[in-house]
């Protein structure tokens, strides 16, 4: 067995007497080994460490022997043998040590059963737990083996003998072994509750000695990190404020030195309370500018989850979910959201109203031109909106900034831009304006002035 001397001194912390004593002794052993000291003297020093200093510390629960000695890879199964009834489950612990921590594989009669659908393996402090079942004498009678390997040490294993009886577990069987765990009460194995309910799964078993209880969910060790799970004093399981994620199969193992018994499991269903459709707040009437995009999100409530759709004022379905996107709004409109499930239906309406802002002018085009001026014309974007003024932006192509002709009377639909450069490309865009505000711009057009100041009309 290799001997290691480890520096156990921590900065700013005074260590108990035995740490320094053991370290000193082990360092002396190492020096003697390195210096070729006789084997007898080395063994005498090692004997003092192993049979005097360490036992004293262990006796007083002050030190773990593994702090000083490397024990290598080891595997140990508990219990060493098991007899079980057909149709029941068996549970074995495989305790492992090693550095790196080993990975274990389970075998039944030499066959890897790690991925067997009847096998569930979980990690526990110090090793692994394996649950196998329902067991059958034809498949499971024989040797179970837990093999451990860590890629450094040689693989090791431990074995257990499993005997599966032909008969099933019958509570009133007079031939049951004395003291074996027995369930004492009948209970409803199917529990259906609503979200938020509190559930108690009662343990009521006898046995001599008193059985140890281990809880499982869906055949795996129960995850006690879930704060809704509480183990009561009588080993019963309390589930507080049950959620949908808590539904599943729950059972427990009652175990003593006479055997392991799994009473009938509970099948717990957790569902929401059924309610008629409704709507979450937040959907409101909207006043929007013309030619903008809006989103209406209809959040329906109820269980089962309602089907949701949108209809317009003509009662035509325009969207078959709660998310309605309306692009380029050009008129005021009333939209209705419908929600329906097996318990009923609900409707909510939303008015989308234009703000009164003018629509962007359209059909902007060149009407005539000279070398120093351009005349452009356009049409209103949408009838029915009052226009007080027009503004025209124009610039040479390539310039950074626009020049603007402001306050063109709203009743005009053409305008001449003067003081331009001959034989030059210009960009032109027109806007409509009223007391509410300024419209979006028309489509930008490109126009080139003439080479001279001569007038040219575009037909």
What brief labels describe this structure?
mainly beta; five-stranded mixed sheet; Immunoglobulin-like; 459 residues
Number of domains: 4
Low-pLDDT residue spans:
1-19, 42-47, 57-69
Fraction of residues in β-strands: 35-45%
Mean pLDDT: 85
Number of helices: 3
Pfam family, one: fn3
Protein name: Tyrosine- phosphatase Lar-like isoform X1
Keywords: Disulfide bond, Immunoglobulin domain, Repeat, Signal
Question: In words, what does this structure look like?
Answer:
This protein is mainly beta and 459 residues long. 10% of the residues lie in helices and 44% in strands. It has 4 domains: 74-165, Immunoglobulins (Immunoglobulin-like, Sandwich), CATH 2.60.40; 182-271, Immunoglobulin-like; 275-354, Immunoglobulins (Immunoglobulin-like, Sandwich), CATH 2.60.40.10; 362-449, Immunoglobulins (Immunoglobulin-like, Sandwich). Strand 14 and strand 15 (220-221) form a beta hairpin. It comes from Paramuricea clavata (Red gorgonian). This is Tyrosine- phosphatase Lar-like isoform X1. Keywords: Disulfide bond, Immunoglobulin domain, Repeat, Signal. InterPro entries: FN3_dom (IPR003961), FN3_sf (IPR036116), Ig-like_dom (IPR007110), Ig-like_dom_sf (IPR036179), Ig-like_fold (IPR013783), Ig_I-set (IPR013098), Ig_sub (IPR003599), Ig_sub2 (IPR003598).
């Amino acid at each position: 067995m290799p001997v290691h001397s480890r520096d156990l001194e921590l900065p700013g912390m005074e260590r108990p007497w035995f740490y320094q004593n053991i370290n000193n002794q082990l360092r002396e052993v190492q020096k003697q080994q390195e210096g070729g000291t006789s084997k007898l003297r080395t063994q005498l020093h090692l004997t003092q460490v192993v049979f005097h200093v360490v036992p004293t510390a262990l006796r007083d629960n002050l030190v773990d022997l593994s702090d000083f000695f490397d024990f290598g890879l080891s595997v140990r199964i508990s219990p060493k043998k098991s007899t079980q009834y057909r149709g029941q489950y068996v549970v074995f612990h495989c305790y492992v040590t090693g550095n790196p921590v080993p990975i274990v594989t389970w075998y039944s009669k030499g066959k890897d059963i790690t991925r067997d659908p009847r096998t569930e393996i979980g990690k526990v402090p110090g090793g692994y737990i394996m649950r196998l079942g329902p067991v059958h004498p034809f498949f499971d009678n024989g040797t179970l083996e837990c093999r451990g390997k860590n890629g450094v040490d040689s693989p090791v294993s431990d074995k257990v003998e499993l005997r599966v009886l032909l008969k099933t577990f019958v509570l009133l069987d007079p031939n049951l072994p004395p003291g074996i765990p027995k369930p004492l009460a009948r209970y409803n194995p199917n529990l259906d509750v609503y979200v938020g309910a509190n559930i108690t799964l009662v343990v009521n078993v006898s046995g001599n000695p008193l059985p140890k209880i281990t809880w499982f969910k869906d055949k795996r060790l129960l995850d006690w990190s879930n704060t809704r799970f509480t183990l009561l004093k009588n080993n019963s399981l309390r589930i507080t404020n049950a959620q949908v994620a808590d539904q599943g199969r729950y059972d427990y193992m009652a175990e003593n030195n006479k055997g392991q018994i799994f009473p009938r499991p509970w099948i717990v269903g957790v569902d929401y309370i059924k309610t008629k459709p409704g709507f979450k707040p937040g959907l409101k009437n909207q006043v929007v500018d013309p030619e903008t995009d809006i989103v209406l999100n209809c959040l329906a409530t109820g269980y089962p989850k309602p089907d949701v759709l949108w209809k317009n004022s003509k009662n035509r379905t325009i969207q078959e979910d709660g998310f309605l996107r309306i692009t380029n709004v050009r008129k005021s409109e009333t939209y209705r959201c419908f929600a329906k499930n097996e318990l009923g239906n609900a409707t909510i309406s939303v008015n989308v109203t234009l703000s009164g802002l003018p629509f962007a002018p359209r059909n902007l085009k060149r009407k005539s031109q000279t070398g120093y001026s351009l005349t452009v014309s356009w049409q209103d974007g949408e009838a029915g909106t009052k226009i007080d003024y027009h503004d025209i932006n124009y610039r040479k192509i390539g310039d950074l900034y626009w020049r603007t002709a402001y306050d063109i009377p709203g009743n005009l639909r053409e305008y001449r831009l003067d003081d331009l450069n001959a034989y030059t490309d210009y960009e032109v865009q027109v806007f409509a304006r009223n007391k509410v505000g300024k419209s979006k711009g028309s489509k930008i057009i490109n126009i080139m002035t003439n080479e001279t100041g001569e007038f040219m009309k575009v037909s």
